[in-house]
Amino acid sequence: MKCGVVVFPGSNCDHDVYHVLKHVLEQEVTFLWHQDDSLQGCELIVLPGGFAYGDYLRAGALAALSPVMGAVKRHAEAGGLVLGICNGFQVLLEAGLLPGAMRRNENLRFQCLDVHLRTERADLPFTRRLKPGQVLRLPIAHAEGNYEDSPARLDALEANGQVVFRYCEPDGRITSESNPNGAARNIAGICNVAGNVLGLMPHPERCSEAVLGNTDGLALFASAVEVGSRHLQAAGAGR
Amino acid sequence: MTVLQKTAEPAVNAETARSIGLTEEEFERLKKILGRDPNWTELGITSALWSEHCSYKSSKVYLKEFPTAGPHVLQGPGENAGVVDVGHGWVAVFKMESHNHPSFIEPYQGSMTGVGGILRDVFTMGARPIACMDALRFGEIDAPRMRFLIDGVVRGIGGYGNCMGIPTVGGETGFHRCYDGNILVNAFALGIARHDRIFHARASGAGNPVLYVGSRTGRDGIHGATMASESFDKESEQKRPTVQVGDPFTEKVLLEACLEAMRTGAIVAIQDMGAAGLTSSTFEMAGRGGTGLHLDLDQVPLRQPGLTPYEMMLSESQERMVLVAKKGREEEVEKVFRRWGLEVADIGEITTTGRAVLTWHGEMAADVPIQPLTEEAPVYRRPVAEPTDLAARWRAPEVPQPDDPRQALEELLATPEFASKRWIWQQYDHTVRTNTVQGPGGDAAVLLLKGTPSGLAMTCDVNPVYCYFDPRRGGAQAVAEAVRNLACVGAEPVGLTDCLNFGNPERPEISWQFREAVRGISDACRALAVPVISGNVSFYNETEGQSIYPTPAVAMVGVIPNLSNLPNPWFQREGDRIVLLGEDRSEFGGAAYLRLLYDLEQGRPPEVDLDAELRLARLLRGLVARGLIHTAHDLSEGGFLISLAEACFGRRTLGARVEVPLAGADLFSETQGRALVACAPAALDRVLQAAEEAGVPAREIGETGGGELVVKSGGEVLSAPVDRLHEIWSTALPKALGL
């Protein structure tokens, strides 16, 4: 499957995502420059973590206006897979590809630690290798992950089944103690209505290799790659 | 020949020279070198180059004593950073540097730019930075401004490294009242590069263009290097404008652009603009290469109009680099920087004259010979005097026995010194770049060297109280402890960098401290076969005549041949056997037990037996390599009981039940050369056998398991729930900070 990792000036998890896709999952991967408005035929687009354009204004606000995002929007509208991680999630919100907004973490500090996530949707292209309710341990590293929206829109998000991951205790209970940043309803990751665009604050690429002591994140990439190769097979069979 | 002297600038004389940091002798020396009076710009340039910070004029004679060669060393001191071979075609490039003075004046920007500066030192060598560490020393938390300083420094370090995407994987933080008026912020960075891709800051090739890249030059940080070479007084607050402002985003694109530009093959030399900005970067490059230099100051990109040559040459605006490109290939280099949205300016060229000629507005702004100002800067052998009360300081302390060892343990765990530093390092991204096998909180940080079975380990160590009472022993102890910490993760040391923080070297006792500490570090480096490959000296760490304790922070890097058997610093499994390695003695000179519980600092610090340290380190590395142990944790400040408690505080707490021949205060004795290991019962005989063969005293003291820490010693039994100890230890720092 051909994967594209978008590079904004200030992206800093681009190499990490590239490494997992290329060396752990052995997929074809290319970097996509923020000034280009072509995705070079990539099927899976990843917006990586970092501080795009320094995030001096509002996280993701400038990146959302860059030329490459026009192509990403068209890709998403056509049903293509888009994964936004951390800063990438913030960019997806600013670009309007996902609903809601980020505020500063409740304690107003950058926080880097392992958190537990409960899988709320295991039927998406990114989560098909997970089980409903499965608890994952993933690292977070951000200062703006306090997800927020109006109560009505949050209700709609839940009703549409767009909440994909919630911060939880190791046993899966949703508590305020397990919420590391104050996010509304412990929301850690959401998708669009169609389910082909996923944004999450934790970093699955940082726990995708046994040598790092945790492989809980690999399932997200592996699920997407599996979907992609099925598409390829289907396309091949159709020809 | 006439050089420009603007009427608006101060007159040049001995008095104005002194006002910017040059002594009368230095002023005379400059006049002799020039054969005439300097103008104001030339005086400013010389003042910066000859500042303590840039010239090492008071420390050079001692630094020569360091062993700097070794089988792995590719570049020792003298470049932007040192380089060691770490195997599989990779080299590690690392250095540590202080940013004490700016951080005390403005903690957020001061620590930010400290991190930014050390990162530039690393990537300017062609290496991609993959890890940072920080050695921090604060005063008592209740001292004036201290909570503000702690918060600002931690935010600043995080603010820079997090944005750059370089993990802060370790470091150390200490608290002592000697830092109430002068905190220490020492930043370490490590990068990796392929063996044949190292770049140097050595100019060559007459006619080659000098390019300026990165941020524009403003009026910030003018004379920062000189400020860092002075003591603090009541007026220091007014020096805020000499602190630079950091922009990590610009540095991130600068990093990517530099590494990409280096791959073009069109770059001859490259150097970052750190202390003394454009002056030190261009003069040092030309000085090392033995070339001359012509700079057209009208081409320097300015943030605001109207900067004088003096201001341009001395500005310490951040995130700027100077490079020498191959003539005719400038366009290739410039294209890369423009693609990353960075400004490039052609500001001059390399010449063969050996002189720096600066022109501005059609006139000669300065014309000075380079090497006499760089390579032949003044060198001082300052008067040295041993403190007159040394015998009294070394008198063995009366050691009170604790009424209740458990209470003593709990009180110690609740001090900022021993408390968990999680509150600090949780604000640093320590997992980005996906190399972090073991992050902050252990004996040493461990990073994956991707594409190889190996790992890199790194640690920072020093005990300033030991160094105050006996700087030579303290210096040796810092090195020995670093070697021990690396050995606990199975790493063989390949090199160290240091940050030597001292008071005013013009005072004979301070120069004595410095000389002795350097000797102690050198003794230990020779005995333990660790070369010094880079480093930094920070003098004048004193406020109103009150000097800090000598604080020669050591950062050591080691290689772990194979990561598959890596032990933890924490107990992992129930029923593991615990073995105490090394010899127990009763040593309390400068010990934390006396200082923190009885407010008593007294006595000569513990002996450092370098042969025993070497045997212990070899044993530990062997045990790790053979996969015999699950846990390894060294004994250091606070002694046996503190280390044992820490070993219980893993991600999942786990108790232990041990019996030791240590009673009362001896549970807190700081005898060196010791470590705790834990292994499966089936491996115990092999562990004890290996220790015997290595000549390291070893005894099985108990086993892991349960929720209690139980220590039998003599007829007494100490028993405490691990969760309670963990609660005290993990919440103490935020509580002390009032959060």
In words, what does this structure look like?
The complex is a heterodimer of chains A (239) and B (739). Chain A is built from five helices and eleven strands; from the N terminus they run E-H-E-E-H-E-H-E-E-E-E-H-E-E-E-H. Helices cover 25% and strands 25% of the residues of chain A. Chain A starts with a strand and ends with a helix. Chain A has a single domain (2-237), classed as Class I glutamine amidotransferase (GATase) domain (Rossmann fold, 3-Layer(aba) Sandwich). Chain A is of the alpha/beta class. The mean pLDDT of chain A is 95. In chain A, the strands form two sheets. In chain A, strands 2-1-3-4-11-10-9-6-7 form a nine-stranded mixed β-sheet, with helices on both faces. Chain A has a two-stranded antiparallel sheet with strand order 5-8. By secondary structure, chain B is α+β, with helices and mostly antiparallel strands. Chain B has 25 helices and 28 strands. Chain B has a seven-stranded mixed β-sheet with strand order 8-10-7-11-9-12-13. In chain B, strands 23-25-22-26-24-27-28 form a seven-stranded mixed β-sheet. A six-stranded mixed β-sheet of chain B has the order 1-2-3-6-4-5. In chain B, strand 15 (445-448) and strand 16 (455-461) form a beta hairpin. The longest helix of chain B has 21 residues, at 508-528. The model of chain B has no long low-confidence stretch (mean pLDDT 95). The interface between A and B is medium-sized, with 31 and 31 residues.
